[in-house]
Amino acid sequence: MLNLKNKTFLTIVSSILFTNLYANDTQKLEEITVTAQKSEEDVQKVPMSVFVLNKERLNDSSITKLDEIGLYTPNLLLFNTGEEGLVTPSIRGISGDISSFSTPVSLYVDGVPIMNSFGYTSALLDVDRIEVLKGPQGTLYGKNSEVGVINVITNKPNNIFRGKLSTTIANEGKREYKAIVSGPIIKDKFYIGLAYKHDERDGFIKNKNKNKKENNKEGDYGKINLRFTPTDNLDISLIATKSKRDDGSLDWAKAGQNNNIEVSSNLIGYSKPKETSYSLNVQYDIDDNTKFTSTSAKRNYKENVALDIDLTPFTISHIYRDYEFDSFSQEFKLENDFKNTKLTTGIFFSKEDDDIAFKQIMFLNPLGNSSLQNLNSKTYSFYTNIDTGITENFRINAGIRYEYEKKNLKVNSSNIYLEKNFENILPKLSLIYNFNEDTMMYFTVAKGNRSGGFNPFISLENSKKYTNEELISYELGYKTYLFNNSILFNSSIYYMNIDNMQVQLRDSTSNPYMANAAKATSKGIEVEIQAFLTNNLVLFANGALNHTTFDEYNDSEDYSGNKNPFSPKYNFNLGLQYENENGYLGKIDLSGYGKTYFDPANKYSQKAYQLVNTKIGYKTKEYEIYLYGKNIFDKKHIATNAYMNGNTSVYYDDKEFGIQLTYKF
Questions:
Q1: Within the chain, how many helices (H) and strands (E) appear?
Q2: HEC secondary structure over 150-195
Q3: Which of 27, 128, 440, 638 has a CA 20 to 30 Å removed from the CA of 655?
Q4: Are 487 and 529 in contact (CB under 8 A)?
Q5: Integer Rg of the chain from CA
Q6: Which helix (H) or strand (E) holds 213?
Q7: Residues 530-552 pLDDT 10s
Q8: Whole-model pTM over 0.90
Q9: Domains (ranges, CATH) in the chain?
Q10: Are 336 and 289 in contact (CB under 8 A)?
């Protein structure tokens, strides 16, 4: 129930909103172009729920890491596990287990696909926009886009020379330094973009045994973007990125602590991820109505991690991980525009080669248990999508993808070799009715899937392999501009059936393994509002309700009716931003998540919480200076960790006050 303070606030906002509805001089919201359906189009014309954070909103909200966008996006949770670069993504209540090395939400950074949780928190630098696509996207994106896709698109260098130097200084020893420059080398032909970021922050968990803070964080990220346009109809871009981090131990400690978080580990943990990626994009306009695109991407992600699981002065359980994920993908796409029809056809190939080295040292086994696994997969797919008008107001958007995946796993120093082939057909159908130029309604039915895998060490022979998780989604959406485009209102309701759900079970010796042992249902509603209340005052409001529960769960206990892990009951964001023609800016927003469980038994959870962020400052054509605050009321939102039977928690020290200085040239 809303308390009096919240009711009063909503009444004031509503009064301001409707007082200004008919103001003739109220500003209009700008049209946002996205590539959600792999071609450029107005986001308000796309028959799916798409939430966009453009570069202005990313900057105004002081968003510097990918996992921060969840605070502003309906039905998106990017759960920070306490290890930088390792995130559990969840859209509409559907999430994945980290140990399965796949997720139901794909991440693409300039066309480079990231199909598992490792390295998911890509650095955000020189970003043009982030698109969050909700609902199954398998038709155009394939496997592991079961409930959504996150697209990160960075700025293209062009004939305009631009540069930016910026620094952020905040509490807890936080420092960020950024440098961005781009422009022409040969006008109209050859361009270059360079970007670099260094960040560091002091730890907040003290090791009593070593008398030092043990989770200090530091990292560097660089990018080069080379663009070549030899003719008017040919555009070639090569983007290379490299990052390296040294993040100390994970943000884990014994449960039940509130302030001055401490551990007494005899091992100072560390996390040292490295990532290198390359993407080559070639766009060739064959004629005015036909476009060919080739996207090649290669990514290598390595992590070296040490964990003191018991967090005590004794060597009860220490874990060492040395993982390397190497991938390559190639896509060819052809777009044809006819009189009232657009046809998109493509072929896609990907190859993944993952080396997974793991060692555990225990009190009763000081030499440790070691394993080295090599996981390989090749994926071949073909897709086609058509958007055509039936009448002046009614359109159909339909597509289908055929996908074939070959996957195998070998455990070195053993005779364990597992292989399995997966075949998928992923259709999608949208019925679209345009009431007028500003208002549309759509109904979409789509199928999504998440890749299966292996349990090499399980004793049960018939449980060594598990198959794809499948989902059928039904979504009804409404998008409109109101009052001379001064208000945007989008809403959607959805219902999803999840079959062959991948969940974690325990064998007779309590060893965990993945199995297709559940069915679930997810249903909910999403709303997004943007409105100019005056020429200088903008309201942002969005929220989502979600109910994702198990219909069946075949384990030693019956978890039917329980909530799916990582599926908050609701999340919301409500904000006001003032910016005038003289360059003054002020912004405040309130974001919150409902209670979230982390295990199928619904025993371990994170309580509902709300965070308040704010920013004030001044900008000119050349300079920007801002004071900002994140979680300004220091709201505690500790996550009790189910992996350690509730004895361990992930702690967040996200109360942050700082200053941002920028020089532009």
A1: 3, 43
A2: EEEEECCCCCCCEEEEEEEEECCCCEEEEEEEEEEEECCCEEEEEE
A3: 128
A4: yes
A5: 25
A6: strand 212-213
A7: 999 999 999 999 999 999 999 99
A8: yes
A9: 4-664 (2.40.170.20)
A10: yes
